[in-house]
Design goal:
There is one protein chain. By secondary structure, the chain is an alpha+beta fold. The protein contains 3 helices and 5 strands. The chain has a 5-stranded antiparallel beta sheet. A hairpin with a 3-residue loop joins strand 1 and strand 2. Helix 2 crosses helix 3.
Length: about 130
């Protein structure tokens, strides 16, 4: 059975897309830890990030770097944090989040509930910056 992320890639489930190329997709987390919480995935479903071929992992990381650059322009923060957990969805994904302190990436925090209009606005702003790169 395909993961929820594979269904997003296939267009079966909508997302707030921020960036895409032939092999990767980046979209807003629908239950963000912080505003600007983005998920970066390979379009090919691979459960565990370290099972990826070296070249594919390198390309995913470089794509995530470009997304992080765009994200930092929209959400100025000292850093864009990156985390790979991979326990909830069996499809490799990188979390990118604007961070101001060490606890900003605490997945135990209560998740934000943002209105669709705000999610669309955030996604459009990040996508616009991504497209400039």
């Amino acid at each position: 059975m395909a993961s929820i992320f594979s269904k997003i890639v296939a267009g079966e489930i909508p997302c707030y897309k921020v960036a895409e190329d032939a092999k990767h997709l980046a979209f807003l987390d629908i239950a963000p830890v912080v505003k600007g919480h983005v998920l970066v995935i390979p379009k090919q479903e691979v459960d565990y990030i370290f099972d990826m071929e070296d070249g594919d992992l390198a390309q995913l990381t470089l794509f995530a770097k470009k997304v992080a650059t765009a994200l930092k322009k929209v959400f100025p923060a000292p850093k864009i944090g990156m985390s790979v957990v991979g326990l909830d969805v069996p499809h490799t994904h990188i979390h990118l989040m604007p961070i101001h302190g060490g606890t900003d990436m605490d997945f135990g925090h209560e998740k934000l509930k943002l209105e669709a209009e705000e999610m669309q606005s955030i996604a459009a702003a990040i996508q616009a910056e991504f497209n400039k790169l």
